[in-house]
Design brief:
Pfam families: AbiEi_4 (PF13338)
InterPro entries: AbiEi_N
Number of helices: 11
Distance between the termini: 64 Å
Oligomer: single chain
Structural class: alpha+beta
Number of domains: 2
Helix content: 40-55%
Shape: elongated
Protein name: AbiEi antitoxin N-terminal domain-containing protein
Number of strands: 8
Order of helices and strands: HEHHEEHEHEEHEEHHHHH
CATH architecture of the largest domain: 2-Layer Sandwich
CATH class of the largest domain: Alpha Beta
């Protein structure tokens, strides 16, 4: 028995990029027809999702993960995900490799930061949000990144993040020091870490 387009979507977690849909035998015309009939919705340019699925908990992070696979959620966006800030992100902060092409998205707004070497690859955790794998820096790596970008995001945001980290997460001093070294902020971070012990 031939699979319906809806079956193909369900077999792939309910959402597909246009290129994935075409690879599974769903034409552009069929995608547009499904969208126009209200069977699927367009999350972003080239990303479609079954309407029958429950609402997305964090549509901005899901959209970025689907559209910019090499991006890692960082800074304020990572703090918000880990519940270590009272700041409300006005876009999604992402880290991309130094030589990567700058991603273009209509929505959500992106704040793009170029990271190199270990500062890009270290501390990446794959979180599943609404069935989609999303790369986000760990709480400890996020703290180190915030110290590195303290002049851009504000020291008040960094200190609040450190305070909330201490009260809401297991305090992993060794990991914090490792990431501080990778981000070259160990001399800046050490007094603040010592003060929180």
């Amino acid at each position: 028995m031939k699979q319906t387009p809806e079956d193909v979507f369900r077999a792939n977690g309910g959402q597909l990029r246009m290129s994935e849909a075409i690879a599974h035998g769903i034409s552009r015309y069929m995608l547009y027809s499904l969208r126009d009939r209200g069977v699927i919705e367009q999350l972003s340019r080239g990303v479609y999702r079954l309407v029958e699925l429950p609402p997305i908990g964090n549509p901005d992070l899901v959209t970025v993960a689907l559209r910019v696979p090499n991006a890692v959620i960082c800074l304020i966006s990572a703090l918000a995900f880990h519940e270590m800030t009272t700041q409300i992100p006005h876009g999604v902060s992402v880290a991309i490799p130094l030589q990567a092409r700058r991603p273009e998205l209509d929505h959500p707004p992106l704040f793009v930061h170029r990271f190199s070497g270990a500062s890009y690859t270290a501390g990446v955790e794959e979180q599943r949000i609404d069935g989609v794998p999303v790369n986000i820096y760990s709480p400890e790596k996020t703290i180190a990144d915030c110290f590195k970008f303290r002049n851009k995001i504000g020291m008040d945001v960094v200190l609040e993040a450190l305070k909330l980290y201490k009260t809401r997460k297991p305090f992993k001093l060794a990991a914090l020091l490792d990431y501080a070294k990778i981000c070259r902020v160990q001399n800046v971070m050490r007094p603040y870490l010592e003060a929180t012990l």
